[in-house]
Amino acid sequence: MSGRLTVLAGPTAVGKGTVAAYVRAHHPEVWISVSATTRPARPGEVDGVHYHFVAPETFEAMAQRGDLLEWAVVHGRHRYGTPRGPVEEVLAQGRPALLEIDLQGARQVRASMPQARFVFLKPPSWQELVNRLVGRGTESEEERTRRLETAVAELAAEEEFDVTVVNTDVAEAAEELVGLMVDPSA
Ligand code: 5GP
After folding, report:
1. pLDDT tens across 90-126, in order?
2. pLDDT (tens digit, 9 = 90+) per residue, 123-149?
3. Per-domain residue ranges for the chain?
4. Ligand 1: residues whose CB is within 6 Å?
5. Checking phi first, is residue 150 left (phi over 0); if not, alpha (psi -120 to 50) or beta?
6. Which of 49, 91, 133, 167 is within CB 3.0–4.6 Å of 173 for a Cys-Cys bond?
């Protein structure tokens, strides 16, 4: 039997990474893809666990060889991509697999693997997303405006997805996601 691929995407700052981290910590039965990225590691991030941190030339070579299932430039800066081989191996073993990627990446996976399930993670309200986006107070006025404009467009992508999960509470959203992943009838 081959496993099912689930793609989790949603607007910037909705908490996709936090939900994926909860799944990683509480649901070892779910395999989560480790992306390659050209961005430098943040303190506490471990190479091979949170990301494969690679040089731009290495990323380029992976993309050229077709080793990436999808890839995108995120926030106009660094490149992020999903290594193809591990995803295919895990699905062949029949394990549920999860990709936590941005919207551009989700669209590419939809084009190449339409049988995957696409889950949109949504904030409980527009105001909550604004709070999460600007709440850190570290961005300039111009940057905040840019991010909010991006968020409007990103929220409109919900209709492209099969299922929506509302991220009011991280644990609840993560459990709902895992429930969708392991339910053969869903
Ligand atoms: P961060 O740099 O904060 O870890 O992640 C920034 C963004 O990159 C998040 O929105 C995350 O979903 C996205 N991302 C992480 N890995 C991938 C990937 O492999 N492909 C794509 N397209 N986006 C990714």
Report:
1. 999 999 999 999 999 999 999 999 999 999 999 999 9
2. 999 998 888 887 766 678 888 888 888
3. 5-182
4. 16-17, 35, 39, 70-72, 74, 80-82, 100-102, 104-105
5. alpha
6. 167
Q: Which CATH class is domain 5-182?
A: alpha beta
User: Atom 6 in ligand 1: which residue has the minimum CA distance?
Assistant: 74
Mutational pocket test of ligand 1: of 19, 53, 74, 108, the residue with most ligand atoms within 8 Å of the beta carbon: 74
Q: Position of tokens 């995803």?
A: 87
Burial status of residue 63 (CB atoms within 10 A of its CB: 0-12, 13-18, 19 or more): middle
Provide φ and ψ at 180, rounded to 5°: -65, -35
